[in-house]
TrEMBL record:
Nitroreductase domain residues: 12-70, 72-153
Descriptive protein name: Nitroreductase domain-containing protein
Organism: Cohnella kolymensis
InterPro entries the record matches: Nitroreductase (IPR029479), Nitroreductase-like (IPR000415)
Keywords: Oxidoreductase
Stretches of the chain forming a coiled coil according to its record: none
Length: 196
């Protein structure tokens, strides 16, 4: 019998950026798994540029939240804010393209799917003042803040889940381009399953 599933992974199927969290800290064994997932991510020449600052203390979350764009005020309710910082010097630049950003994205995505498997939902953010974030967390000046991800255990209240899903639908968050728009086969502009 094949060990390979022919279906989309549940973590991919179910992941969504929602912020209806339960008021519970992230368990330490769950941190271990998420951080291991992030650590195992591939990177160009194995440079591993991602550095994480994990903000879990309520007082620190509140302080960091002051550096966020006002539309990201919901983040103050997260169980933790995961701040991903990196410096371009730690990774490749090829033809003007800085790969530290790509490699950091791989690491964060890996963490997010592991989190999802543990019942932890996440919402990434780029709406914040970088200098304020760096100042607040004492991140050295040569590092760039790449993304901040708010995480928490998803609420088990049906009403809050419905509201989160309704908000998501209202803002069209679940929408994706279909493959005809983003995927070509053999050559740019060519499509159709007959070309596979
Ligand atoms: C790099 C990045 C930055 C984002 N920045 C914000 C943000 O500042 N505020 C916010 O509410 N959501 C932010 N999001 C969440 C996106 O809006 C969300 O991922 C997108 O609408 C797709 O929805 P889904 O993740 O539920 O599938 C960000 C997501 C990514 C990947």
């Amino acid at each position: 019998m094949s060990m390979h599933s022919e279906e989309l992974l549940p973590e991919i199927e179910n992941r969504k950026s929602v912020t209806n969290w339960r008021n519970a800290p992230i368990r330490s064994e769950h941190w271990d798994l998420m951080l291991e997932a992030a650590r195992r991510a591939p990177s160009s020449w194995n440079h591993q540029p991602a550095r994480y600052v994990l903000v879990t203390d309520r007082e620190h979350i509140q302080r960091l939240s002051q550096s966020l764009h006002r539309t990201n005020g919901w983040a103050v309710n997260a169980a933790a804010l995961v701040v991903l910082a990196a410096t371009p010097e730690d990774d490749d630049r090829v033809a003007g393209k800085d790969y530290y950003l790509y490699d950091c994205g791989l690491s964060m995505m890996s963490m997010i799917y592991q989190a999802q498997a543990l019942g932890i939902t996440s919402r990434q953010m780029i709406g914040w003042d970088e200098e304020q974030v760096k100042g607040c967390l004492m991140i050295p000046s040569r590092y760039r803040v790449v993304v901040i991800t708010a995480i928490g255990y998803v609420s088990d209240s049906l009403a809050s889940t419905k509201l989160a899903d309704w908000k998501r639908t209202l803002t069209g968050q679940q929408k994706r381009y279909n493959a005809q728009h983003t995927v070509y086969w053999q050559r740019w502009g060519e499509g159709g399953s007959s070309l596979r």
